[in-house]
Amino acid sequence: MVLKDPALYATRFVVIDFEAVTPRGRRPEPVEVAALAGVITPEGWRETGRFETFIEPPADVPVTALDNPLTGITRPMLEGAPAASAALKALEDRLTRPPYLLVAQGAHVEAGLIHDQAAACPTLARIPLLCTVRMAKKLLPDLPRHRLDDLMAHLHVPTPTGRRHRAMPDVEATRDVFLALLHLGTESTAFASLTQLQKIAGVTPKAVLEDEQARAPRQEGLFEL
Fold it and tell me: What is the DSSP string of 37-96?
């Protein structure tokens, strides 16, 4: 059972995940990104494209097995990879058939990493996001935790091929969790349209908020002395 909403079928969903390191006193630096694009049809998910690449962080950012124990990514694996700005520009160049919605587990993290490179990917940085954690908290309020592994276990999502905590396997798992939550929300009538789903699980990109603030009229001359 799926939403009876034409907007759902007209939208291309891009499930995205970053792996990153967080140097002390600095913002996270991405070292890998993967994205999986697709559309939802009455028959189910239809994939329309994939993108993945390592990202070489600045030279002064340490990347060792100790810095990234879950992923196993080390500095030699990243040598010659594009910088974050180039990687996200390459992803943006693939997004040629809007409208799009990004989907991520804990989408505020992905939103922040994208916004850090907004100058190189202005279109990507303004695409709204759906957060599977927010969806899960609405639909599964009694679940103690809403981490990706917890949702996979509860929703009987199979473990993806490849190492967990690497970008593409995590994207594949997030996609399956998203689709399971979408069906669960439809069946429970938690939302009946894509617009309602966005109100429940949407994350507005910071670049969009900045645009709105810049366009807002200034209230000058309210007080005169």
Answer: EEEEETTEEEEEEEEEEE-PPPTTS--STTTSTTT---HHHHTTPPPHHHHHHHHHHH--
